[in-house]
Amino acid sequence: MKITIKSIMVFVVLSGLFMIAPALMSGNAFAQSYEYGDSSSSSDNDNGDSSSSSDNDNGDSSTTPSDNDNGDSSTTPSDSFVEITSHDDGETVPVGELTIEGTSSDAGDSNCHIYADWNDVYPYQSVEATGGDGSEDYSSWEFTYTDDYETITEGDTNELTVKYYCGSNSDASNSVYDTVNLIGEE
After folding, report:
1. How far is CA 168 from CA 44, 64, 66, 70, 94, in A?
2. Dihedral sign, CA of 60, 90, 178, 103?
3. In the list 12, 38, 78, 99, which could disulfide-bond 144, CB 3.0-4.6 Å?
């Protein structure tokens, strides 16, 4: 068998593809690098609105959702939704602190969570569950943007996104999102 530079190059390329293919297909952090705040965005909102949505991973100031993974392999049901109800896309709001509120399909008896972000700034922040069935009932929720994370800035650069997922956060397809773009005004 004659070994040429060309055959070696083909072998190297194919070896690389075989090494990366499982990672891409498994939905892990390498394949889903946009989950970790690299400023990619998507317009795949599962609630049917056409606002843009980010798909980065998030958590409170010290914990990311994947750190909260308790091994539950449940997935977000296909009829799940999350919605920011306190503000409309394109609305003008004062600069500084701002509280958003919303609803979701969560019933309080699932292993589901909601996180909020501002302009894809990592990490996402835990929202407060305000549903009637206790601290795990995200059927209604709220989050306040403060100096501890980010506040509303002047201009049309305030993309607020909420992410709802159930079980493990290792697969972005198990998440639903809602986004509003707000205009900050002094």
Report:
1. 20, 12, 7, 7, 36
2. positive
3. 99
Judge whether 117 and 181 are in contact, CB under 8 Å: no
Handedness of CA 128, 130, 136, 137 (dihedral sign): negative
pLDDT at 52 over 90: no
Sequence ranges of the domains in the chain: 32-185
* pLDDT exceeds 90 at position 50: no
Burial of 186 (0-12, 13-18, 19+ CB in 10 A): exposed
pLDDT at 4: 66
Domain 32-185 has CATH 1.20.1250.20: no
- The three-state (H, E, C) secondary structure of 6-72, written as one string: HHHHHHHHHHHHHHHHHHHHHCCCCCCHHHHCCCCEECCCCCCCCCCEECCCCCCCCCCHHHHCCCC
Residues 130 and 133: their CA atoms lie apart, in Å, by 8
- Which tokens go with 52? 């843009």
Average pLDDT of the segment spanning 138-165 = 96
Task: Give which of 50, 54, 104 is closest to 79, Cα–Cα.
Answer: 104
